[in-house]
Design goal:
With 111 residues, the chain is mostly beta strands. Helix content is 0%, strand content 51%. The N and C termini lie far apart (37 Å).
Length: 111
């Protein structure tokens, strides 16, 4: 059982990135799935959550209106679309399912 993130990189302020979390060994629609982020020296921060089944979404205030979490059941993948990126969004982003963390993907927002 392993979430596998991809899609991080370097982007200028105001730009966009889409992160992917591919599920290995489980069905994403059966679980609450979340994206977290962490910068060195700080605690891991919950960014966005999508519930199992009906796929309701919840966002941290810091990303509301800019980030969108979604799920493609046919690809068994969860996404995080990040728009209007700011330097303070720079972090390692992790996909989480209860009991399991992905390896993380680095997002750097800089000019």
């Amino acid at each position: 059982v392993q979430p596998v993130e991809s899609g991080g990189g370097l982007v200028q302020p105001g730009g966009s990135l889409r992160l992917s979390c591919a599920a290995s060994g489980f069905i994403v629609s059966s679980y609450l799935m979340s994206w977290y982020r962490q910068v060195p020296g700080k605690e891991r921060e919950l960014v966005a959550t999508i519930t199992a089944g009906d796929g309701r979404t919840i966002y941290a205030d810091s990303v509301k209106g800019r980030f969108t979490i979604s799920r493609d059941n046919s690809k068994n993948t969860v996404y995080l679309q990040m728009n209007s990126l700011k330097p303070e969004d720079t972090a390692v982003y992790y996909c989480w399912r209860h009991g399991y963390w992905g390896q993380g993907t680095q997002v750097t927002v800089s000019s």
